[in-house]
Write a structure and sequence with these properties.
The complex is a heterotrimer of chains A (111), B (166) and C (651). Chain A has three helices and no strands. With 111 residues, chain A is mostly helical. The radius of gyration of chain B is 20 Å and the shape is globular. Chain B folds into two domains: 127 residues, Four Helix Bundle (Hemerythrin (Met), subunit A) (Up-down Bundle), CATH 1.20.120.1200; 37 residues. With 166 residues, chain B is an all-alpha fold. By secondary structure, chain C is mostly helical. Chain C folds into four domains: 245 residues, no CATH class; 201 residues, no CATH class; 55 residues; 31 residues. Helices cover 72% and strands 1% of the residues of chain C. Chain C is globular, with a radius of gyration of 30 Å. Classes of the chains: A mainly alpha (111), B mainly alpha (166), C mainly alpha (651). Chains in contact: A-B, A-C, B-C. The interface between A and B is large, with 75 and 87 residues.
């Protein structure tokens, strides 16, 4: 499968994530869109890892070139999980204080 | 067009449609469900790329744990369609246009890039995505980051508890 | 001793002597630091001892050096360090000890020491810390003055020049709680600054034309200067001398400088600092000799100052003001001598004037001390019996300044007058007229103060007493010097050898020999002495019984008001400057500069208030901008070739 297909597909997912962040005011949806972007990047990383692996695979069937990229993806998932737990805690707190999850309420930076 | 290619296009289409549905759904619960579909599609892609470990981790961590957490929070807050804040239609339009132009620009960039024109991603074959291979790499080369990530989890846990208690 | 090559004056090389040179300014500097830094902890007697001993040590070293110079000629002094070094200009921090500077060293440290001793007694009423402050300033002054005299180039001289100006300012304003004294101090400082600017420009001019400031090199290369350059440099130097030595038109600060303590007036404003201008011109005699025009200007300004201030002195009633105008007048004589090419005469008069004018000031200080800070001579009179030592010494000083033979003033003044006659008989006539006025006002002062009956209050009369020994001994020493000091310069027609002339001749190379027939010279001497004697007798007769008590009228009033020069300066310089400053302050500053500054502030504030709205604080907007910027950057990146071509086509 040409790598450009993967790239364009992942770009499409990523852009959908960005558009989601831009058009939605619901903090939870925005958060989910961020997860979507993360996943797009993860998939692209794996695709690239397989691209490099494919080159080495032609000469050595048992090669592990590109394995570190997949480990990297694993770590991204780890961090994402931690991030989600903290992020959701923040959203819950915000909801408790403002009775809303409108992201436009978070404009304290203004002052 | 062999089976793998059919699967690729099918999964890609499913993922993009589901991702759009995440945006479009008014009800946050529906958004979560559509996002789970996206994750399943991506896990399918992982399996196509023979990245079995990541496929299953993706399912367990994202589709399982994280999305359940989202769902849980949404239900806890009792958010529904009516409580969903809506943006000004012009801002929505601006967001869509800028996102679209970003996509166009990036795609044209990819199309121009000669370095990746003839590169292929290996599908089906190769054993780097297997649990055994990744496990060896993880516990030899990446053992220190792995341990550090446990510290990260611990601090995230503490942080979540502290923030939630306020 | 490699560095000796940079002085062509060197005639011998005494290796251990030249190290001593640095001790001379070091002692007063150390005294200044001790007294200045520990002024709150030292007792008054200790302060006085430290201050005086520092100068005494300098005096002893100066004496050793003087004797060495007398037998061996100018000595080589190694530069202390390189003060300023650029590619084209090197200025060493170097000292030069030759006949001229060693003579000045003796005057400064010798009279300085006597005045320090005198001050210790005169200032005893001050608080300990102010007492120490006084001695610290005085030591600093001596240090600066020594630097001025010792420097081997114009820059070191300028450092000393500024230093003495600073100390003069500090000491005039010593009683800084009196605002009038502060004004006097500021006036002195500002007038000196005007002169200093001239000096500085002259130094720049020399650097520009000759690329060096060292005396030796400047004088050796003086022939390279064009006549116009020499005139400009010497005129600018003379402007500096005008300020420092109180010549017309920059003399008005000196009478006001009498606000300082009397010993300060004796040291700074009579004996040493004000003669710095004469030292400078005598030092630069090679340059001055190249410009006929400047010499004329110097002579005319000197003569005009001598006459002008002598007329003012006639009608002054403040004992110190009379002496101050007398000092200005005597300085005018020195410049007359310089202008006529009689450099030795001028330096000789510096020396004798230092003796008798210091004596007169210290005597006046003794009188003021006895009278409890009464300075108006109309309230004195008859002090002859109460203050016998002061009276005798003061009388000797008056005779010396009047030019009675064989007192010191006679020889020096006669030398200048003879040179003036050789130059132009008119100069001589005016000079003698000034000398007569000098004799007249000095004896008016003497008669009004010491003769007749006491006219002060009973309280003052009751407390009248002779000053303590610490004050009278310096008076006696100075009186002795005033009497015999002239003997070092007895001219040949009176059977002397004029040793000073021979001593100074290696430095004052362009001294003009003035040949006057002996008969004429005897006659000139006779006339000037006779006129002065008549003036003395007239003054003593007129003022011993009936001193003028009334306010002066007519011409006398003009003289008493100093020809209204201060008012003139006020009107033509100070007031226009004041109104210009007021214009700047009220119009330019308020609406122009303030307006601009505030306008910029308001503009920034307004702009910020508007741009602040961009920072809505809403994350969505930020991300939108970020994405758009991202798109733009990538777009530019993709199309960089086209954009570059487009821009190159445009420009």
């Amino acid at each position: 499968m040409p790598i450009s297909n993967y790239i364009i597909f992942c770009l499409a997912l990523f852009t959908i994530g960005i558009v989601g962040v831009l058009v939605r005011r619901n903090a939870i949806i925005v958060f989910m869109c961020i997860e979507l972007m993360l996943n797009a990047v993860n998939l692209l990383l794996v695709a690239f890892s397989k691209m490099h692996n494919g080159v080495a695979y032609l000469t050595d069937k048992s090669t592990i070139v590109g394995a570190d990229a997949q480990v990297f993806v694993f770590f991204i998932m780890v961090v994402a999980a931690a991030e989600v737990s903290v992020g959701l805690a923040i959203i819950v707190m915000m909801y408790r204080n403002t009775k809303s999850i409108d992201i436009n309420f978070l404009n304290r930076l203004k002052n | 067009m062999n089976l793998i290619q059919i699967l690729f296009w099918l999964l890609s289409g499913l993922a993009i449609v589901s991702a759009l549905m995440v945006l479009i759904s008014k009800n946050p619960v529906h958004s979560v469900l559509w996002l789970i579909v996206v994750f399943f599609a991506i896990s399918g892609h992982y399996i196509l790329l023979n990245a079995q470990f990541l496929a299953i981790v993706n399912l367990i961590v994202y589709a399982g744990a994280i999305m359940v957490l989202f769902l849980f929070v949404i239900m806890l807050m009792n958010l529904g369609k009516e409580s969903d804040p809506q943006k000004n239609v012009w801002i929505k339009l601006a967001g869509a246009i800028s996102g679209g132009s970003l996509l166009i620009v990036l795609v044209s960039l990819v199309k121009q890039a000669s370095e990746i024109n003839d590169k292929e991603a290996l599908l089906g074959n190769g054993n780097i995505g297997l649990i055994g291979t990744l496990g060896k790499v993880l516990f030899t080369d990446f053992v220190v980051p792995f341990e550090i990530s446990s510290v990260l989890f611990l601090s995230a846990m503490v942080g979540a508890v502290v923030i939630g208690k306020k | 001793m490699e560095q000796t090559h940079n002085s062509s004056f060197i005639t011998h090389n005494s290796q251990h002597m030249n190290k001593l040179v640095y001790l001379i300014p070091l002692f007063p500097l150390v005294g200044f630091l001790i007294n200045g830094l520990m002024r709150k902890s030292l007792s008054k007697s200790l302060t006085g001892i430290i201050g005086s001993v520092a100068i005494l040590a300098s005096f002893i070293v100066s004496l050793i050096l003087f004797l060495d110079v007398k037998t061996n000629g100018a000595m080589a002094v190694n530069p202390l360090f390189t003060f300023i070094k650029t590619q084209t200009l090197t200025i060493d921090f170097a000292f030069q000890v030759d006949q001229l500077s060693s003579l000045f060293l003796l005057i400064i440290t010798g009279i300085g020491f006597l005045i320090h001793v005198y001050s210790a007694s005169y200032m005893h009423e001050e608080e300990p810390q102010h007492f120490a402050r006084y001695f610290a300033y005085l030591n600093l002054f001596v240090f600066s003055m020594l630097l001025l005299v010792l420097g081997a180039n114009y820059v070191i001289m300028f450092i000393g020049w500024e230093g003495v100006g600073l100390c003069s300012y500090l000491l005039i304003g010593y009683w800084f709680k009196n605002n009038n004294y502060n004004y006097a101090a500021k006036k002195a400082f500002i007038m000196n600054r005007i002169g200093d600017l001239g000096f500085l420009l002259a130094v720049f001019w020399i650097i520009n034309k000759l690329g060096t400031v060292s005396y030796a090199e400047v004088f050796a290369n003086a022939s390279k200067l064009t006549a116009a350059d020499a005139t400009a440099i010497t005129m600018l130097l003379f402007v500096g001398a005008m300020g420092k030595s109180a010549q017309i038109p920059l003399y008005t600060w000196l009478p006001d400088a009498m606000a300082g303590p009397t010993p300060v007036s004796a040291l700074i404003h009579a004996a040493t600092m004000v003669t710095a201008g004469i030292y400078m011109i005598a030092r630069s005699n090679v340059l001055y000799n190249m410009s006929e025009f400047t010499m004329h200007v110097v002579a005319i300004v000197g003569l005009a100052t001598a006459l002008f201030s002598a007329t003012i002195a006639i009608k002054q009633n403040d004992i110190k003001k009379v002496l101050a105008y007398s000092t200005v007048s005597q300085l005018g004589y020195m410049f007359l001598g310089l202008g006529c090419g009689a450099y030795t005469g001028a330096v000789f008069h510096v020396m004798t004037h230092a003796f008798f004018k210091a004596l007169l000031f210290l005597g006046a200080g003794s009188v003021i001390h006895a009278m409890h800070h009464e300075q108006d001579i109309r309230n004195m009179g008859g002090l002859k019996k109460k203050l016998p030592i002061t009276h005798i010494t003061f009388l000797l000083g008056c005779i010396a300044i009047s030019g009675m033979p064989p007192f010191s003033g006679f020889f020096s003044k006669d030398e200048i007058l003879a040179a003036a006659y050789a130059h132009s008989p008119i100069y001589w006539v005016l000079g003698v007229a000034g000398a007569a006025m000098t004799a007249f006002y000095m004896f008016r002062l003497y008669a009004t103060t010491f003769l007749g009956n006491f006219r002060g209050t009973h309280d003052q009369e009751h407390h009248l007493h002779e000053s303590p020994k610490a004050m009278t001994i310096p008076l006696m020493i100075l009186a002795l010097l005033s009497v015999v000091g002239g003997l070092v310069g007895v001219p040949e027609i009176l059977g002397g050898h004029h040793e000073l002339h021979h001593f100074l001749s290696p430095v004052l190379v362009s001294e003009k020999a003035h040949e006057i027939p002996h008969n004429t010279e005897y006659m000139l001497m006779g006339i000037s002495v006779a006129i002065a004697a008549i003036a003395i007798l007239f003054a003593v007769n007129k003022f011993s019984k009936n001193p003028e008590m009334k306010e002066a009228e007519g011409l006398g009033k003009v003289l008493a008001n100093k020809w209204y020069v201060d008012e003139l300066y006020d009107n033509i310089v100070v007031k226009p400057l004041g109104s210009l400053a007021a214009f700047f302050k009220n119009i330019i500053e308020k609406s122009g500069i303030d307006g601009a500054v505030n306008g910029v502030g308001k503009l920034v504030q307004y702009g910020s208030r508007q741009t602040r709205l961009l920072q809505s604080g809403q994350v969505g907007n930020y991300i939108l901008i970020m994405v758009l910027a991202f798109v733009l950057i990538i777009f530019i990146w993709i199309n960089d070739g086209h954009i570059y071509r487009f821009i190159t086509k445009l420009f």
